[in-house]
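Comment thread on ticket #2218

A.B. wrote:
> Attaching the input chain for the structure job we discussed in standup.
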Amino acid sequence: MKVTKRFPLALGLAGALLFSSCSKEDVMTPQPEAGSVNEHSGAKTNAGELAALPAFANTISGNLGYEKLPIDWAKLDGPLTDPSIPVGLSSRTSVWGLENWSALINPKWVKPLPPVPGNPTANSMVTVTSYAQNPEQTKERSGVFTTLNNLKPGTTYTVTFYVASTTVTGLGSNQATSICAKYAEIKMFNVDNGSSTNAVYFYGKEATWLKKTITFKAKANSAKFVFSGLTQLGNRYSYIHLFVDRNSLKEMHVTPQMVVL
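C.D. wrote:
> Ran it. Output below, let me know if you need it in another format.
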């Protein structure tokens, strides 16, 4: 295990003392919440019945903390990531929402994140951790996922979201410091010809929200959305953030072309 792994994990343990941690079942199985923004009232079909609208879980809901995630999001546990590496909900000013801890543990971002464009009051985003420098290092990073529901097979959709990377300093006795990530990685399954992979490169843009829109065609009535990322140096870790608002998934409507006879 890399020596640097101890410091975010140590901070995670600190966060666990301040915030109540989730059980494995809580983390791995997203549960719907009555009245959440992901439960759509639907739209009327031609038959007059209600049809559920396409749903992509936002990252606004939920309590800040180590190993805490928004409604309908879960930690990835499988061949793509290492479930022992932390995830959680962070604020724009600190990892896992911790504001103060001790002289040896400073959880505040070196450079705080600005407000998310179009969401000036939002103060929570999903955070994953990465020690992986290349895509083959699947066991050197954490990841999260959600399911896009109520899709119509053969229909084209867009998903729009924001990603960012921030750094901390002073985690542990030797003041281990994180670095800005190389890129955020988004994998989607059950779309297009089977799956797709998209990368959003940071190019050293620390604490900057980068907007990304992915266009896909649904193969079934649901699709899987997986988020993780890579660090720039294999012996230094990175924090990578994801923000999804309440209207991020949209169906693309094709306007029929007029035929002149």
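A.B. wrote:
> Thanks. Noting for the ticket: Residues 16-45 have pLDDT under 50 and may be disordered.
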